[in-house]
């Protein structure tokens, strides 16, 4: 088959796919009857209602699921059966602060795998057109690329968790000190928490905002902080939440507890920095041994070598 025929076939396939995607997107953007009528009947009693309809999401995963829903859901179920570990993935999604369900995450894994599959398929197609490709090796490389995309998405979730936890550890001493100052100034714990949440921005502030929302809905303060301690993946934050819960239950001076927690976090950060420097001591010596030392030796011996050459007949 000639190159022009291959090019025409690929162009036709791409055009048909683009038209299908555009038509489906236009159909999804069209508001349905229930969405147009709902603002006028929202205050009326809903007889036999089974729950509110889920809100439309603007994420690429939700858009892809709306276009190719059944196929992506089947592929996501297959990935779930093969990989497993749903409890661990849910835990990491909570620790990463992502408002994503397990099924949506599996769909995103399938999309990443399909992206890697498409890139590898394009590379193998170019090689085949050049006459340097084997069919079996091309198929195997595409399957490996799909698996690599799926696993890379999971690794990216783990990286997001670590990044968010590092940000929380950086914010934690300041948040704890602000809470301690507000409580020492005479405010109640809930008022101090509200003030700190309104004045600060960050990952830990978002977690405390969720705790404040639980308190305002009627949940006891100690139980709300216990929930934070059970969901966080950082032992320091868990001890902080548990300390506040115990202080609220037993009447311990809360300001002293918060000051001690902030001091513990600063000391832990200092200790971690020293340990990191100790672990990287050999790596830090590499530039000295392989760059500075040879240049020093060269500067020391090169003039002597030149002098010997000039003196020797």
UniProtKB/TrEMBL annotation:
GO terms for cellular component: plasma membrane. It is a multi-pass membrane protein. The chain crosses the membrane at residues 6-26, 110-126, 132-152, 288-311. It is found in: Cell membrane. Its main location: membrane. Residues 176-299 form the Type II secretion system protein GspF domain. It comes from the Bacteria. Keywords: Cell membrane, Membrane, Transmembrane, Transmembrane helix. This is Pilus assembly protein TadB. It comes from Nocardioides seonyuensis. The lineage of its organism: Bacteria, Bacillati, Actinomycetota, Actinomycetes, Propionibacteriales.
């Amino acid at each position: 088959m000639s190159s022009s025929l291959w090019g025409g076939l690929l162009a036709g396939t791409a055009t048909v796919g683009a038209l299908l995607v555009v038509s489906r997107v236009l159909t999804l953007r069209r508001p349905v009857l229930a969405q147009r009528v709902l603002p006028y009947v929202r205050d009326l009693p809903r007889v036999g209602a089974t729950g509110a309809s889920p809100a439309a999401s603007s994420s690429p995963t939700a858009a892809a699921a709306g276009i190719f829903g059944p196929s992506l859901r089947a592929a996501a179920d297959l990935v779930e059966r093969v990989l497993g570990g749903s409890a661990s993935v849910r835990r990491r999604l909570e620790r990463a602060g992502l408002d994503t369900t397990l099924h949506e995450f599996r769909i995103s894994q399938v999309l990443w795998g399909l992206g890697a599959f498409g890139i590898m398929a394009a590379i193998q197609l170019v090689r085949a057109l050049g006459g340097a490709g084997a069919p079996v090796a091309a198929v195997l490389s595409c399957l490996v690329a799909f698996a690599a995309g799926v696993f890379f998405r999971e690794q990216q979730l783990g990286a997001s968790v670590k990044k968010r936890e590092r940000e929380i550890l950086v914010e934690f001493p300041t948040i704890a000190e602000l809470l301690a100052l507000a409580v020492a100034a005479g405010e109640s714990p809930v008022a101090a928490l509200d003030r700190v949440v309104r004045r600060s921005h960050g990952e830990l502030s978002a977690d405390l905002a969720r705790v404040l929302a639980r308190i305002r809905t009627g949940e006891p303060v100690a139980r709300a902080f216990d929930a934070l301690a059970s969901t966080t993946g950082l032992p320091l934050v868990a001890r902080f939440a548990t300390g506040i819960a115990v202080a609220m239950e037993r009447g311990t001076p809360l300001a002293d507890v918060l000051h001690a927690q902030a001091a513990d976090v600063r000391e832990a950060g200092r200790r971690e920095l020293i340990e990191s420097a100790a672990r990287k001591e050999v790596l830090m010596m590499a530039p000295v041994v392989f760059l500075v030392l040879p240049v020093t030796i060269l500067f020391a011996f090169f003039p002597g070598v030149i002098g010997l050459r000039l003196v020797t007949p």
